[in-house]
Amino acid sequence: MCFEDYIAEFCASDEECYKNDIDNAHAMEWLQNEIPRLECPDAEIEKTYYFRWWVYRKHIKSTPEGFVITEFLPDVPWSGKYNVINAAAGHHLMEGRWLHRAKRYLGDYIRFFFRHPDEGMRYSSWLIWAAAAYHDVTGALQLTDFLKEAVPHYLRWETERKTPCGLYWSIDDRDAMEYSISGSGSGRVTKGVRPTLNSYMYGNASAIYDLSVECGHPMDAFYDRAAAIKADMNRLLFRDGFYKALHPENGAFERLDQIDTAKVPRELIGYIPWYFKMPDPGQERVFDLLEDKNVFAADFGITTAEQSDPRFLFPVDHECLWNGYLWPFATSQVLTGLIAAVDTAKEKEKYAGLFYRLLLQYARQHTKKEQGQTQMWIDEVKAPDKDEWSSRTLLKKWGWPREKGGYERGKDYNHSTFCDLVISGLAGVRPHGSSVRFCPMIPRSWEYFCLDSVRIHGKDYRISYDKTGQKYGHTGWRVTQNGKEIQKPINAILF
After folding, report:
1. Taking residues 477-486, what's their average pLDDT?
2. Which of 109, 324, 368, 451 could form a disulfide with 312 if both were Cys (CB 3.0 to 4.6 A apart)?
3. pLDDT in tens, 354-364
4. pTM above 0.85, yes or no
5. What is the set of domains in the chain, with CATH numbers?
6. Which residues of 201-213 are buried (b: 16+ CB within 10 A; e: fewer)?
7. Residues 129, 132, 136, 138: what is their CA dihedral angle, to the nearest 10 degrees?
8. How many other CB atoms are there within 10 angstroms of residue 240's CB atom?
C-alpha cells in the first residue's frame, strides 16, 4: 500500500469522537507535508508507522499560549490546563521532533511547562532530556534562555524529592504507573526510590550539562549531579543483576542498602536507565529477559512485571494496572533503551535482532478486533495473554463514566512512541549537536528499505538500501542530503 491508501483507510474506519486542530478531513494534506516517508518489506511495521503519525496529529492543539500536545482526546478530570498532562511529554517530544514543522508545534509546548511550573511537576518526566533531543533535530532552542528556565525546573525537583541517600523519591502513581507490584500494589502507598524518576533526573542533568557546553558555558555542577546519581543508582538500586524499585519502611532512605531485595520484583522500569545511556557497556544481557517467558515475554508483548512473581496480575477493580499488563508507554521506553544498548554491545547483531522482533510484536499490538472486524487501534493498557485492550473493556462495561473520562477516552491514546523507534532505531538516524550518524539495523532478508524526507537542521535526508539495485537503482546503502548523495559512513547492522 502507498502512504495515501493507509491514511484513507484509517480515516474511513474512524469514529472521529473528538477533534482538535487537524481533523480527518485535513489529515491527508497535513501528513503529506509533515512526516518522513517509510518504505519497507514488513507491512505491519510500515502500516503501524503511518497509523501512529495519523494518531499523533489528532493531539496537536492550539491554545492562547501556543500549541500543546495532549495525551487524551477528550478532556479528563485529572489533566491540567488545556487538557495537558506532563507524564508523556517526553514521548511527545521524542516523536514529534521528526515533524517538518516541529518548531511550530513543540516550541510553545516545552515553554508551557516552564511557564506553569506546577504542570511540569504533576508526574515525573524527562522533559529536559527530550527537549535536548528535539534540539538535536531542529536546532530550535535558544540555549541560554532555555537553560535559564530548565535549571530552576530541575532544582525544584531536587529540593522537593531528594532523599538522604542521594537519590529521589516518588510513588508509582506519580510515575504514571499506578498499582505496580513494587508500589501501591504492595498494599501500601509508600515513597520509594525508583528507577523511573532517578533515571529521569540523571537524563535531565546530563542534558543540561551537554547544552551548557554547546552554548559555551559548561555547567560542571550538572555533570557532577549526573555522575552522583549514576553511582548511587548502581550502588543502591542495581540488585540481583537488575535495577529495582525500593520502598523502605517508614521512609528510611538512609538504610536502602539494608533492604533484602530477594522478594522485590523485576519490572520493566528496570530498563529505563538505558534510555538515558547510563549503564556501562557489558550489561546488555539483561535484555535477554525480554524473551524469557518466566520473566517478561508474553504472547502479546512484554509485561510490566515479571510473570513469576506471585502478585503478577493481582486483581484490582481499576482500569489502569501496572502489575504485569502491557503498556505501550513502557514498551517504547524499553525499546529506546535497547537502541542505546545495541550501540555499545559486543553482540550487536544479536541485540539488533531482538530489537526488531520486539518492534514487530509492538506493531502487532496496534489492533482492535470486534465482531469479526479488525481495526488499527492504540489505547491505554493491553492484556498479556489475549488480544484485548483491558482498560477499554472495563470502561465500556462500566458505561463510560464521565468521572473517568467518558466515551472511548483511551481511543487514539498518545502515551508512547513508535515512529521515533523506526526512525532512530530501524533507520538508525542519530543526530547530536550539529552532526548526524546513520546506524540502521534491518534483517538480512530484506531486499529494500527507505526512509525519505527526514528533516534535520533544515536539510532533508533520505536513507535507502537496495540489495540488488532493482528497487532504487543503487546497490547497498545510500544517504542523500537535499537530493544529493553524501559520503556519510553507514554503520549498518544486518542480522
Report:
1. 96
2. 324
3. 999 999 999 99
4. yes
5. 58-406 (1.50.10.10), 427-495 (2.60.420)
6. bbbbbbbbbbbbe
7. 130
8. 10
And the C-alpha cell for 231? 553511582
**Residues 6 or more apart in contact with residue 252 via CB below 8 angstroms:** none
Q: Over 80: is that where the pLDDT of 188 sits?
A: no
Task: Give residue-wise pLDDT tens across range 113-129.
Answer: 999 999 999 999 999 99
Type of residue at 289? L
Ramachandran area for residue 382 (φ above 0: left; ψ -120 to 50: alpha; else beta): beta
User: How far from 251 is each of 128, 172, 220, 228, 238, CA to CA, in Å?
Assistant: 28, 15, 31, 21, 19
Cβ-contact 244, 194 below 8 angstroms = no
* Short-list 449, 283, 429, 424, CA closest to 355: 424
Which parts of 365-473 fold into alpha helices (H)? 390-397, 419-420
Site of grid cell 519490572? 267
3-state SS class at 202 = helix
Q: Which residues pair with 484 in a beta bridge?
A: 481
Of the candidates 161, 443, 176, 103, the one whose C-alpha atom is nearest the C-alpha of residue 333 is 176
**Sign of the CA dihedral 45, 51, 53, 55?**
negative
Q: For residue 186, is pLDDT > 90? A: no
* Cα distance between residue 302 and residue 289, in whole Å: 10
Between CA 78 and CA 86 the distance in angstroms is: 11
Q: How far is CA 217 from the centre of its chain?
A: 30
- Measured in degrees and rounded to the nearest 5, phi and psi for residue 436 equal -145, 135
CB 291 within 8 A of CB 297: yes
- Distance between terminal CA atoms of the chain? 26
What's at 159, amino acid-wise? T
3 state DSSP class of 252: coil
Cα–Cα distance for residue pair 174/85, rounded to 1 Å: 12
Q: What is the 3-state secondary structure (H, E, C) of 83-97?
A: HCCHHHHHHHHHHHC
Cell 531536587 sits on residue: 158
